[in-house]
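Our preliminary data section would be incomplete without showing what the modeling component actually yields. Below, a chain of 107 amino acids is followed by its predicted structure, encoded as C-alpha cells that our downstream tools consume directly.
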Amino acid sequence: MGVAGSELVDPADPDVAHPAGDTVIIVTARRRAMEDYTAMGAAMAVENFVEKYQVPVAGIHFTEGQLKGKTLRRMGVDLHYDDDEEEIEEAEVWGVDTVWVKHPADE
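Predicted structure:
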C-alpha cells in the first residue's frame, strides 16, 4: 500500500494504477543479470512478481543499479511509485511526481 496525501493506494490495483488508461511500466534499479537470483529468498524476480500478481504492465526497464530519476524523466513518466526514500527524492529532483509505497517488510 502506498500513501498519496492521506489516501492509501494499492499500485497493483488496475483501477488505481491507471484509472485514466495510462501506460504502466516497471522501472527497477535491479540488474537484469541478477534476476535469476533471489537474495536469500527475500526478493522475487520482477517478471515472476508481475505474473504472480497479474500486474497489468506494458514493460519492465532495468536501470542496472542506477538511481531511477533520470531514466523516469527520459521515458516521460508522470507518476512514480517507490518504497525507497532515495529513489523518491531523485525522481522529484527530475520533476517526476511520486507516491511512497510502504514495503511489506517495514510493517
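The two ends are 11 Å apart (CA to CA). The longest helix spans residues 85-93. Preliminary results of this kind motivate Aim 1 of the renewal.
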